[in-house]
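Page 42, continued from yesterday. The earlier attempt failed because a stray header line got pasted into the input along with the sequence. Redoing it now with the clean sequence only.
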Amino acid sequence: MQRNKKTNPRIVGLVEELKRIAREKEAPIWRDIAKRLEKPQRHYAEVNLSKINRYSNANDMIVVPGKVLSAGAINKQVTVAALGFSKKAHEKISEAEGGAGKCISIEELVKANPKGSGVKIIV
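This time it went through. Structure tokens are written below.
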């Protein structure tokens, strides 16, 4: 049986980078995210804003190993890192709490917080 490999160079590079930083900084959260991203794309998380709003507090850093969708509303200032955002989800997060919410890529979050302290995974 032939094993399929990831062909998206962004995902391949991100997984390698996450594993490297997890080893160097002793941050198991990045290894967990890397393992989730190694799975087939059909198993990636698709998280609605209502779920992020329900399980987060103000000023939290959230990582979604997949895509953020726009169903629901968000009324807290949070920083959300994900592989992708729907257009409406990006708008809603950016406009939350007077425009203080942030949408960033997982790569940016890893650079800003290599230890992974204070980061919540939502799937």
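Notes: The chain has one domain: 9-121.
Reminder to self: strip header lines before submitting.
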